[in-house]
Amino acid sequence: MALATLVFAPSARAALPVGAQAPQFTTQGAINGVPFGFDLQKALRQGPVVLYFYPKAFTKGCTLEAHAFSEASTEFHRAGATILGMSADALPVLQKFSTEACRGKFAVATATPEIMRDYDVALKVAGVPTGMTNRTSYVIDRSGKVVMVHSDLDYRDHVKLTLAAVRALKGR
Fold first, then answer.
1. What are the residue numbers of the active site?
2. pLDDT at 11
3. What stretches in the chain show pLDDT beneath 70?
4. Distance (Å, rounded) from C-alpha 84 to C-alpha 137?
5. How far apart, in whole angstroms, are the C-alpha atoms of residue 41 and residue 23?
6. What are phi and psi of 61, to 5 degrees?
7. CB under 8 Å to 4, separation ≥6 — which residues?
8. At what angle are helices 60-78 and 158-170 packed, to 10 degrees?
């Protein structure tokens, strides 16, 4: 039984190590229900970006994680950071999620297959892609370097760890 659990357990890992150059991308997203285009390069001009991938909108862990980022959004803003949640969900779903779960406090966007590949966040079960993303958080500094990575399907430490990394950047 334990072997079956290991074989079929979803994998959660991140390929981009600290110090790697974050792949640039553009995608479509929503904030407070309003669609918009997101460009990582442009966002980094404003300050660090917290890029967090979550498996599926409106699932329990993903909703709780969005609530936690929403509650901490003022602290991220004070530290000069932009928060962007990403999943493979379609834009209409993200529009609703950005209002209900994110409470209009930060944006969510579509993780295209290319983005999922570049950030190595495709959720796989028994080695087979599910079409969803792993729960992986990155903090990317203004120069585009990855300064923090946390990949764990348990949502609870993502906000705490990304906020600490953003605060450390502000102290530089």
1. 62
2. 42
3. 1-14, 172
4. 10
5. 9
6. -65, -40
7. none
8. 20
**Please, how many CA atoms are within 13 Å of residue 17, restricted to the half-sphere of its CB?**
1
| pLDDT for 60 | 96
Helix (H) or strand (E) holding 130: strand 128-133
Share of the chain above pLDDT 90, in %: 85
pLDDT reported for residue 170: 83
Cβ atoms 100, 78 nearer than 8 A:
no
- Give the Cα separation of 83 and 106 in Å (integer): 6
Give the distance from CA 110 to its chain's centroid.
10
Task: Go through the domains of the chain in sequence order and give each one's CATH number.
Answer: 10-170 (3.40.30.10)
pLDDT at 1: 35
Distances (CA, A) of 137 to 4, 83, 119, 165: 28, 10, 10, 11
Task: Read off φ and ψ for residue 84, nearest 5 degrees.
Answer: -135, 115
Residue 8 has which token pair? 């079929």
In this predicted structure, what is the pLDDT of residue 82?
A: 97
Residue 59: what pLDDT?
A: 96
